[in-house]
Amino acid sequence: MRKWLRNLIFGSNFLYIFAFPIRLKSVVLFNFHNISKSLYWLINRGEFTNYNYDITKLNRNYLVSFIAYITNKDYNFVQSILLEIENNKDFKEILNGEIAKIKRKYELPKQVFFARRLGWYVLVRILKPNVVVETGTDKGLGTLLIAQALKENGKGKVYSLDIDPYSGVLINQNIWDNIELIKGNSVENLKKIKNIDIFIHDSDHSEIYEKAEFEAIQVNLSENAVVISDNSQFTDALLDWSNKNNRRFIFFKEESKDHWYPGDGIGVSQTKSM
């Protein structure tokens, strides 16, 4: 009887009516959960851009697997590199010291999270590039992670480009001699940097500007250069550029933990010979 009634309801035009309370409950619960996290963030946090959050444990494991696939390395090996930066007390002490000095310190939470930027660190540690270029410095958190990875490698330099003259406030160049900050239009300045091993787009995320950056670096990439688009969920610019240049593209979706913002993503483009 129950099976017969169920099949009758599922096959009738009244399914919308019968299912409406269940669907409403799902929507209300989902939005209530996100609203509560949003209100907490509004009251307790100060950042208004580049939101700072941790990622879920499952998402972190997926990030490790993502990097293992890209680099053709063992999962446990990649995990050990990620733990290296997570457990680096000296790096965190330097970072916290610089946060305490800046005027914008109240934008950052008491505990700063690296989230998907952990992937940048691990990639730099494994690929051991000589030249890393990042567009979109902002405060400089990602830049510092890259610089620390290069320091662990014992070689390499990161060029960080931003149009904002006040960007890079966390970067003390008396400490970090492997960072060069370049202020101004990124597309024009990118044309001057040669032999780029890793490029990270994290500036203007419009499709037109993102494509302009890829075109600007194309002739200056090293043979097996890796190109990354942060926030790659916004456009298919890197996917399109990869297809046109016979490169392999893969995407990782970030999942934030206890934050209203769902997270960003990393698009990675590499030569098919890697």
Structural commentary:
By secondary structure, the chain is an alpha/beta fold. It has a single domain (55-271), classed as Rossmann fold. It has ten helices and nine strands. Helix 7 links the parallel strand 2 and strand 3 (157-162). Helix 3 crosses helix 4, helix 3 packs parallel to helix 6 (117-127) and helix 6 (117-127) runs parallel beside helix 7. The chain is globular and about 70 Å long. The termini are far apart.
Number of domains in the coordinates?
A: 1
* Poorly predicted runs of 5 or more residues: none
Strand percent estimate: 15-25%
Query: What best-fitting shape do the alpha-carbon axes yield?
Result: globular
Main-sheet strand order equals: 4-3-2-5-6-9-7
- CATH class, anyone? Alpha Beta
Mean pLDDT: 91
Distance between the termini: 60 Å
Q: What is the CATH topology classification name?
A: Rossmann fold
State the total count of DSSP E strands: 9
Helical residues, percent? 40-55%
| Rounded Rg | 22 Å
CATH architecture: 3-Layer(aba) Sandwich
Structural class: alpha/beta
Q: Secondary-structure element sequence? A: HHEHHHHEHEEHEHEHEEE
Could you give me the name of the CATH homologous superfamily?
A: Vaccinia Virus protein VP39
Number of helices: 10
- Mind describing the biggest β-sheet? 7 strands, mixed
Describe the SSE topology.
Elements: H1 2-10, H2 15-44, E1 54-55, H3 57-71, H4 75-86, H5 89-101, H6 117-127, E2 131-135, H7 141-153, E3 157-162, E4 179-183, H8 186-190, E5 196-201, H9 207-217, E6 221-230, H10 237-244, E7 247-253, E8 256-257, E9 265-271
Parallel strand pairs: 2-3, 2-5, 3-4, 5-6
Antiparallel strand pairs: 1-8, 6-9, 7-9
Helix pairs in contact: 3-4, 3-6, 4-6, 6-7
